[in-house]
Amino acid sequence: MELRTLGQSDIKISPVIMGTWQAGKDMWTGIEDTQTIEALRAAFEAGITTFDTAEAYGKGHSEQIVGKALCEVRDQVVYLTKVFANKLSHDKLIKACERSLGNLKTDYIDLYQIHWPAGSFGCAIVPIEETLGAMEKLQQEGKIRAIGVSNFSAKQLQEASRYARIDSLQPPYSLFWRHVEKDAMPFCVENNITVLAYSPMAQGLLTGKFGPDHQFAKGDHRSKNRLFQPNNYRRVQAALDQLRPIATRLQIALGQLALAWVMAQPQCCAIAGARNAQQATQNAAAAKVVLSLADLQEMDRIGRSVADRLDDNPVMWSF
């Protein structure tokens, strides 16, 4: 898998990144640690070198699983993790980073990201200058290699860039969810900030595995995803029917088609989760898919039949 450069850093990342929100188990159902570990190792064997996690995923459990699965190949992989919005003051952030280092069984984190902006979900508002000051201290000490942000608007990203070099933005981004295109993406392209797209398969929607009458198990947070709400869901199913012939012609799975589209966008890598080794291997293979300009234009049109009917709320869920 041909690696890409993360922002202005010297870090090389795989265009398909394995996401591990589900590894934390909280807000998901049917997740088994042994299968997750197998998936992580299968992803690495298939060429994925970059793994994204967060302390908030299962109160550190996801980080611990990543550390357990990949400790023997630590020198060959790149770890991305995040600090949550309730730990953005200087001292809390330093302690959070130390916990993440312990969870991951490593003495450095390649990319440390602000998970949500200060003030999100009722958390305290902390000046971005203070938060980034703590991150730069960690960087100077060699505990983190690069700084990123997640779920930031263009305005918030611009402000953050005044105080530190930001190498990445992690937004929700898929064929069906495209708020970042009209907000922060132009700033990212102009300033060489890598876009790490999460939910590039729209939390499984773009795999085509959820039929018109699908019901999520109790405790699965995807029931709160706005794309799964009735009016949007009907448009989603119609769009999937139009995407299937493209995947069939290219002899790939729908999910791989969705990942390939994201990776073809400016400065974008795709963060794809996997419950098992088979899914991880399939996701990795998406890096080999080549889409023609005609394919991209047709997919853009189909995706907009869903995305353009959404409101301007950048948060995917109605928690």
What do you see in this structure?
The protein has about 325 residues and is α/β, with parallel strands linked by helices. It has one domain (about 5-210, about 250-290): Alpha-Beta Barrel (TIM Barrel). About 35% of the residues lie in helices and about 15% in strands. The strands form two sheets. Strands 3-4-5-6-7-8-9-10 form an eight-stranded parallel β-barrel, surrounded by five helices. A two-stranded antiparallel sheet has the order 1-2. Strand 6, helix 4 (about 130-140) and strand 7 (about 145-150) form a beta-alpha-beta unit. It is globular, with a radius of gyration of 18 Å.
List keywords for this structure.
319 residues, alpha/beta, 8-stranded parallel beta barrel, 37% helix, 10 helices, TIM Barrel, single chain, 10 strands
Q: What is the number of helical segments per DSSP (H or I, 4+ residues)? A: 10
Determine the mean pLDDT: 95
Spatial ordering of strands, largest sheet: 3-4-5-6-7-8-9-10
Radius of gyration over C-alpha positions, nearest whole angstrom: 18 Å
Q: Low-confidence runs (pLDDT<50, min 5 residues)?
A: none
CATH architecture: Alpha-Beta Barrel
Can you tell me the CATH class? Alpha Beta
Number of domains: 1
CATH superfamily: NADP-dependent oxidoreductase domain
* Beta-strand fraction estimate: 5-15%
Could you describe the largest sheet, including whether it forms a barrel?
8 strands, parallel, barrel
Give helix % range. Answer: 25-40%
List SSEs in N-to-C order.
EEEHEHEHEHEHEHEHHEHH
The CATH topology, please? TIM Barrel
CA(first)-CA(last) distance:
37 Å
SS elements, strand count: 10
Quick one: overall form?
globular
Q: What is the structural class?
A: alpha/beta
